[in-house]
Amino acid sequence: MTARLLPFALLAALLWAMAALHLLPLAQWPAWPLDPARMDIPQILLGFGLMPRGVVALLAGAGLGLSGAILQAVLRNPVADPTTLGISAGAQLALVIATMLAPSLLDGGRWPVAMTGAGLAAGLVLAIGARRGFAPVTMVIAGMLVGMTASAVATAMTLARGEYLLSLVIWNGGSLVQGDWSGVRVLAGVLAFGAVASALLARPLRVLSLGAEGASGLGLNVAGVRLLAVGVAVVLAGAVSAELGLIAFVGLAAPALARTMGAASIPRLLALSPLIGALILSVCDGLVLLVADHVGEMFPTGALTGLIGGPLLIWLLPRLRGSTPPGTERAEGPAPRRDRPAPLLAGMALALVIAALVLVWIGRVPGGWAVLDAESAAAFLPMRLPRLIAAAAAGASLAIAGAILQRLTANPLASPEVLGVSGGAAMGYAGVVYLAAAPTAAMLMMGTMAGGAVTLAMVAAFVSRREMPAERVLLAGIAVSALAAAVLSAAMAAGDARSFQILGWLSGSSSAVTMPGALALATLAAVLWAGALAARRWLAVLPLGAGIAGGLGLPLRRARLLLIALAGMATGAATVLVGPLSFVGLMAPHLARRLGLARPGDHVAGAALIGAGLMLAADFGARMAGFPYDLPLGLFASLIGAPWLIWLMTRPPR
Amino acid sequence: MSLFSIRDLTVDVPDRRLLHGLTLDLPPGRMTALIGHNGSGKSTLLKVLARQIAPSGGTVAFEDRPLPGWHARDYARRLAFLPQHPPPAEGMTVRELVALGRYPWHGALGRFGPGDHDAVARAMDECGMTPFAGQLVDTLSGGERQRAWLAMMVAQQAGTLLLDEPISALDIAHQVEVLALVRRMCHKAGRSAVIVLHEVNMAARFCDHVVALKGGHMALQGDPAGLMRPDALEHIYGLPMQVLTRPDGSPVAVPA
């Protein structure tokens, strides 16, 4: 089966050789050992740029492949990889913080800092997973939450210090450009360590593949092996992050490809994945070099791995065999049910109105807090009212979309964010920014909504296959999210004014909302609410699965399409305002359900009210916390939402 | 008129054929058992009848009309289907679950009228679920939950019930209780039922008609007496079987 890899190895070598020969004919190549003193500029570019770059691509790819294979083996989770578990994002956040707040920490190399961040993120995700028996979907959701929160914070800090923007964005995208052989030395050392460690771990991991109970029955120290294996994976991924930045998907794709090539046993998986990872990254980097030769260095290689990896994963999905033992996904016990939800809903609506009124009238002034008098209220009202209305409407829309999706997929963790809808919406926004000469607000909104709907339709194509397990659906969503992230970072690496517009929007801001825009959004939210209420019988039947729904004569196809269109519009419209990074769509329906709102109509209504309230709170916080400057709204919402969700997930199932 | 008339039915999945040109008529007004070894295609056949999967070849007609000619809601008014593992119906009361059976009649937006309330009440009564009406489905025991799902099917007011291994997760007392309920539903109210069963003695005891599949082919069709013979059972299950006679004269099969 390794013979099938040969063409790719040749392709990678060919691409690199083309770039190298384009730089310098073979006859003029520098002699070994390299001595910069006796080399001219092209020779230095080759000997200290392209050559280490080619080797780094191999080493980093192998490291990521091995890291992903170890994580997938130890967690028995075909979706695990340094990106989906938030490890890379943790390293990224640590580096961003260090770059901005304590640059002296980086004197000893980016290594220790990145490793600390990666380790902390992995620890948090594992702590969540440990409570749920490392159930795969829970782990990935936890990883995405940690990863998205880390990215949100990193984005906020990047925005606050614009002068670092470009280098950080390029680093985030994973550039393989090398200036000397130091990166090669570091990565080679780490990879050697990883190879030895995984050779030692291969047999225990094989025993662990029987499941924790079976393995401890055979006398294995399950916790110890897990800790060691994850530690090795974190070191590998953290080292690559420190040297090169975020390179998504290699760690996910390499073991998946290895498995489709017939690497069934864990030792073979561990042996083959680094090989495949090295080839993936080399081919990607070769393509980037090819483009760079002709039109200049356009985008970082990490963006390309996402571009290739997303579709690859989508293609792989139907071929992946679920390796999840049934019954490992547990929700946190049955949610309560309220027999008479009307008082609660009325109370929530009242609280929302009161909160909105209060928020209009109080605010911060230099040196303290103030309640507006009538005169300044008249002056401030036209400024504050639109953003309050818009924020509440966006929150309600996202919450309705989340409630619909959770019922449609019968998965309490589905949400516009997790299912990649927000990522698709972001691509739609970026597409309009780049393709239209002078994009109007309406065009941006249309683009965002179309992006969200198209993505949702793609994901729904997976859901609609019968008995599609939740992990596949999430894989599809993650694939789309990663694709979106790759496209965006490729777009932003261009680094012109449009990048700032997109970056600013990504974190979400409500400060530029006009009254007509706010009212349009509010109308849309009301229409969506009405639509969801009209479809409440579908929403009652659909969670029971395709078998029951089909047996009752429900028009499955039409119902799914309509509901998906509804959720896609809601997400798209809200995403225009708050950006893709908020957890309201996941949080509000979940919270409504925990409050005992079980019937579809109550559930949707409660989720909408909670979503609106959360977004109002986020808006207030975003306005006040950084006074006199506005912080991004979506960012603030995710800073409220993510810790709450993480707390929720760390609670033991009852 | 036959309930289902199946002609040359084949079902393929990638790399495998699950049903090989099955031709078969199922009688109306009877309780029919579909039996066979694991992987014999009995559940596949039931899912084709329930229109859960589309056949790869051949035709199936329900009440003399080909399956593709049925509108989804009309079909659901005539025929109710219960999958093998009914979902937990989290957060739903028994009454709400049973009321879902009215969907084929009122649709997505139609009014839930007095007729619907009446049908739900009668369905819960018929299945003995009235005392549990306000309880959450996920708090019921296995047997009660299965009866709640049966009540939902009754509320559908369909003349035909398709059940996929309805007793596989139940203890022996609840197995008997559920099958007796289905039998009552058939014989008292003139319904037809097609049930996938693992347990051959249960099939012989409760059903009027037996269809046995083996490796995607038909192995035997007839009344339970024809099934409960050592040679027939050995043909179906590929294992020597012995048929004992109970004091009341009814046969019991055990591995020889």
UniProtKB/TrEMBL annotation, chain A:
Which GO terms fall under biological process for this protein? siderophore-iron import into cell
Pfam families (UniProt xref): FecCD
GO terms for cellular component: plasma membrane
Topology of the protein relative to the lipid bilayer: Multi-pass membrane protein
Entry's transmembrane regions: 57-75, 87-105, 111-130, 137-162, 182-202, 214-238, 244-262, 269-292, 298-317, 344-365, 385-405, 417-437, 443-462, 474-493, 513-531, 538-556, 562-592, 604-625, 631-650
Compartments reported by the entry: Cell membrane
Gene3D superfamilies, A to Z: ABC transporter involved in vitamin B12 uptake, BtuC
Q: Which UniProt keywords apply?
A: Cell membrane, Membrane, Transmembrane, Transmembrane helix, Transport
Q: Do you know which SUPFAM superfamilies this protein is assigned to?
A: ABC transporter involved in vitamin B12 uptake, BtuC
Q: Which GO terms describe its molecular function?
A: transmembrane transporter activity
What's this protein's family per the entry? Answer: Belongs to the binding-protein-dependent transport system permease family. FecCD subfamily.
Under the heading PANTHER family, the entry gives: FE(3+) DICITRATE TRANSPORT SYSTEM PERMEASE PROTEIN FECD-RELATED, FERRIC ENTEROBACTIN TRANSPORT SYSTEM PERMEASE PROTEIN
- Name this protein carries in UniProt: Fe(3+)-hydroxamate ABC transporter permease FhuB
Q: Which organism is it from?
A: Paracoccus sediminis
What gene does this protein come from? fhuB
Automatic annotation (TrEMBL), chain B:
Location(s), subcellular: Cell membrane
User: What is the protein named?
Assistant: ATP-binding cassette domain-containing protein
Cellular compartments per GO CC = plasma membrane
Quick check: keyword Transport in the entry? yes
Write down the Pfam families for this protein, in alphabetical order.
Answer: ABC_tran (PF00005)
Species name: Paracoccus sediminis
Question: Which part of the chain is the ABC transporter domain?
Answer: 4-240
Please give the chief subcellular localization of this protein: membrane
Does this UniProt record's set of keywords contain DNA-binding?
no
